[in-house]
Amino acid sequence: MTNSPAARDIDTSRPHSARMYDYYLGGKDHFDIDKQAAETVAAAYPGIFVCARENRAFMHRATRVLAREHGIRQWLDIGTGVPTEPNLHQVAQSVVPDARVVYADNDPLVLKYAERLMRSTAEGRTTYIEADVNDPDALLDAPELAEILDLRQPVALSLNALMHFVTDAQDPYGIVSRLLAALPSGSALALSHCTPDFDPETWQKVTDIYNGAGTPVQFRSKDEVTRFFDGLELLDPGVTVGHRWRPDSEPTATDAEVSLWTGVGIKP
Q1: pLDDT (tens digit per residue) in 199-249
Q2: Which stretch of DSSP H or E encloses residue 263?
Q3: Most C-beta atoms within 10 A of its C-beta, which of 9, 166, 262, 267?
Q4: How far is 240 from 263, CA to CA, in rounded Å?
Q5: How far is residue 3 from each of residues 42, 94, 104, 118, 191, measured CA to CA in Å?
Q6: What are the percentages of helix, strand and coil residues in the chain, rounded to 5?
């Protein structure tokens, strides 16, 4: 992992949220410092493993719904994280083989594994952009994006477990609004966001752990998460806990274990 230029740019002096998430999902693309930080979180909030799995499952279901029921053929997935199969493009292309997907992240580790994100069907297209959600204009203006996505046609904006890493000081609502403004009618927002609503004391501990490790976080209430969908038409069942958004089977986890608000909205 240390031989490539991208790997040499990886900061292993402090834990990284994407690599911690990889640990929560049972992956192998993380370092000891990430494992240690993730286990500290898990000690305070044992449900973190359930939360991560349910977040991933929500992404899969939302992608299939948008492809099957709403004719979406293009996705912009920001905050991609370390690739974990099936990736979004694999889910989308299993429904519509000509789906086009642009992934974006600002973590060099994701860049190292970006080849996994570009194994598209022959009919579809995928690419990876090194970009930061805090600079939406640079992301939207990236030439790689223009090569894959036609912004005159509907695009699904996928922001999964990302916006709680954007604090109010960074204008999270303005960022999402700017991204959606660039997309035409019929586009969609699929978003998941961790919340302290079900166990404020535990989530304060999680907040302190991330902030103490140098990764600012801001977990939000249901009303605050719902605000990201202002101006959009929410699909049923609206903003709900992740495992209750159109589940494939009867949910078994508790809301407190999942602690993740999710929703999908369509731009009129």
Answers
A1: 999 999 999 999 998 889 999 999 999 999 999 999 999 999 999 999 999
A2: strand 260-266
A3: 262
A4: 7
A5: 31, 34, 23, 21, 35
A6: 45, 15, 40
Q: How many domains, the chain? A: 1
CATH code of the domain covering residue 216: 3.40.50.150
On whether the CB atoms of residues 122 and 149 are closer than 8 A, the answer is no
Amino acid at position 129, single letter: I
Measured CA to CA, the distance from residue 181 to residue 175 in angstroms comes to: 10
Are 215 and 16 in contact by the 8 Å Cβ rule? The answer is yes
Q: How many CB atoms lie within 10 A of CB 200?
A: 12
Gap between the Cα atoms of 141 and 137, Å rounded = 6
What range defines the domain where residue 53 resides?
5-266
The tokens of 200 are what? 């404020």
